[in-house]
Amino acid sequence: MTWTVTPEPHDSPAATALWRAYYTEVSDRYYLLHENRRTAPEELEQEITRADWSDLTPPKGRLLVARLEGEPAGTAGVHLTTPTTAELKRVFVQSRMRGRGGAQLLVEAAENEARALGATRMILDTRHDLTEARALYTRLGYEETPPHNNDKYADHWFSKAL
Fold this sequence. Notes:
There is one protein chain. This protein has a domain at 3-8 and 56-161: Gcn5-related N-acetyltransferase (GNAT) (Aminopeptidase). Helix content is 35%, strand content 30%. It has helices spanning 13-35, 41-50, 102-116, 131-139, and strands at residues 3-7, 61-68, 71-82, 85-93, 121-126, 143-145, 156-161. It has a seven-stranded mixed β-sheet, with helices on both faces. It starts with a strand and ends with a strand. Keywords: Acyltransferase, Transferase. Residues 17-162 form the N-acetyltransferase domain. It holds the Pfam family Acetyltransf_1. This is GNAT family N-acetyltransferase.
């Protein structure tokens, strides 16, 4: 299996399709846990339309797209919050392509992008129900920290020296 990870415009067809898959999955997981329902189609469209990926563009950010055997498989974003701190955002691998090392490759590529942007530290937040994500970040050397933002969907905050 061949993985590639490359920068891509946040509004490319592959990035747009992966954002839709990402949002559908994390939204459905949230609503199933908290309200015992899936995301309503109109809610999904509203959130996708409202989504702003502009912070994942140069010179202060980057969106990475992973492909498995050439097929778009996942994303990771990096955004500078200060000249030396980058935030890891929207790490996602499509469910049918998980368990093959793509998420780790995305995070490592994002760390390299953050370094290239001048960051010496990476921060991120995630939810309690995204247990796979928390396990990945811990395995890759991220340590849980006090909150660095007030995102209403965040339950856990992490940091790693780059």
